[in-house]
Amino acid sequence: MFSLLLIALLVYLFIKYKGFENRRGSSDPVNVIKERYARGEVSREEYLRIVGDLEK
Fold first, then answer.
1. Reduced to 3 states, what is the DSSP secondary structure of residue 39?
2. Angstrom distance (rounded) from CA 32 to CA 18
3. What pLDDT, in 10s, does the model give residues 14-26?
């Protein structure tokens, strides 16, 4: 019985951790630069240059 509860807890924590990671955004470089552009951290010119470089 205890082992089932432990396994259920581990599964819950794993799913919760993965869900948190997905909400923070992707580590895909194009998505990262899109998010930075949306927040105003890079100019339009920088965004277009970086996306162009990444898609080569």
1. coil
2. 18
3. 777 765 554 555 6
* Ramachandran angles phi, psi of 37, nearest 5°: -65, -40
For the beta carbon of residue 29, count every other beta carbon within 10 angstroms: 13
Domain ranges in the chain?
A: 25-56
Amino acid found at 34: K
Regions of the chain with pLDDT less than 50:
22
CA distance 49 to 37: 12
pTM of the model: 0.52
Residues 6+ apart with CB under 8 A from 35: 25
